[in-house]
Amino acid sequence: MEEVKQLKLSKSILDMKFMKKTKERVQKEQEDAEGKAMYSNEITDEMKKSGNIVFTETSIYHCRNLIEGRLSFGGMNPEIERLMLNDFAKKMQEAEKRKETDVSDVQMAQEYSTLVNTISNKFSGRKNKNKRKFMKPADD
Amino acid sequence: KSEDKAVYPGDVIKEIKSVKGVTILGPGLKRNEAEPNTLRITRAGKLRFKPPNTYWVDHAQKRYIPKRGDLVVGIVTKKSGDTLKIDIGGSEAASLSMLAFEGATKKQKPDVQVGDVVYGKLLNAHREMEPELVCVDSYFKAGKLGPLSNDGFLVSVSMGLVSRLLDPDNPLLTTLGKKFPYEIALGMNGKVWINGRATKDILTIIRCLEAAELQDDRVIAELCRQYK
């Protein structure tokens, strides 16, 4: 099927009342084309093709998940301590959780070696249990 | 802690991980205009990456460069009409409007004099413009910001120490809190304001900060564990 050729509507037709919607559409298309022509130097075709990554800038507070710098301990400033209950307490709890779940390698090795011994005692059998050696009585 | 490599200003980072086309950049990085989807390093240090999509550079620099969103401690140097000029240690003094405090109106302005210390948040900080501070959040509540009392002491530390102390894993501040009551305001510009019940306590804290400057984080954690 052949494509219908786009007719360029004249200004007097667009000015008619029943052509209002079409007029707005045509004007929007014209403005978009103008904008594209103006910014074609900055937004290059290369940028559009490579699926542009949007870079947001932020401070180191969000990068490292730091606590806010205003602190109070021991009731020195009750208002600040009340505000600290919200974010400071949460961040400390998260840090605690992270420390608990992380078992160090040395600890793991130690616990595993003692675990092996206890399990082996379980399966050592009846013959070896409480095995007493015969002791010669002293020559007294 | 993957990808900890030493980088120098001018280096280009090529493979960038992003989530839904968005990557978050911390201090020390900026977009590379020459090639799309690559980054250019602006500070010398170690490149750090936090999954899924955050990159930044850990550097130890002495000069503070104002960055948007930082909480800083500033000293009022000039009072002119409706705005205050605040020294935050950057190349230019920041401006703070007298109306950017909680409960401030044109008729009732806050009682802030030249020489006072304020804790504020940087609203915007471009290279070409004067930085702007506010002492109030978007709901017009002061929260933790605002003028700091003149009973406290102000000291300068390095900016690296401030980021180390504000890490939730670092036990120094909480351990000191268990020993005696005090309050502290750490500014990302390296200025620290400390207030306590006795001058002796404040001097102890200042000594601790000076010592922590030169010590490794693990040594600090070990010492704090002993003091529990």
UniProtKB/TrEMBL annotation, chain A:
Residues 124-140 have a biased composition (Basic residues). One of its GO terms (biological process) is maturation of 5.8S rRNA. It comes from the Eukaryota. Transmembrane segments: none annotated. InterPro entries: MPP6. Residues 121-140 are annotated as: Disordered. This is MPP6 domain containing protein.
UniProtKB/TrEMBL annotation, chain B:
GO terms for biological process: CUT catabolic process; exonucleolytic trimming to generate mature 3'-end of 5.8S rRNA from tricistronic rRNA transcript (SSU-rRNA, 5.8S rRNA, LSU-rRNA); nuclear polyadenylation-dependent rRNA catabolic process; poly(A)-dependent snoRNA 3'-end processing; regulation of gene expression; TRAMP-dependent tRNA surveillance pathway; U4 snRNA 3'-end processing. Its main location: cytoplasm. InterPro entries: Exosome_RNA_bind1/RRP40/RRP4, KH_dom_type_1, KH_dom_type_1_sf, NA-bd_OB-fold, RRP40_KH-I, Rrp40_N_euk, Rrp40_S1. GO terms for molecular function: RNA binding. Residues 24-63 form the Exosome complex exonuclease Rrp40 N-terminal domain. The keyword rRNA processing applies. The keyword Phosphoprotein does not apply. Residues 152-198 form the K Homology domain. It is found in: Cytoplasm; Nucleus, Nucleolus. Keywords: Cytoplasm, Exosome, Nucleus, RNA-binding, rRNA processing. One of its GO terms (cellular component) is nucleolus. Belongs to the RRP40 family. PANTHER family: EXOSOME COMPLEX COMPONENT RRP40, PNAS-3 RELATED. This is Ribosomal RNA-processing protein 40. It comes from Asbolus verrucosus (Desert ironclad beetle).
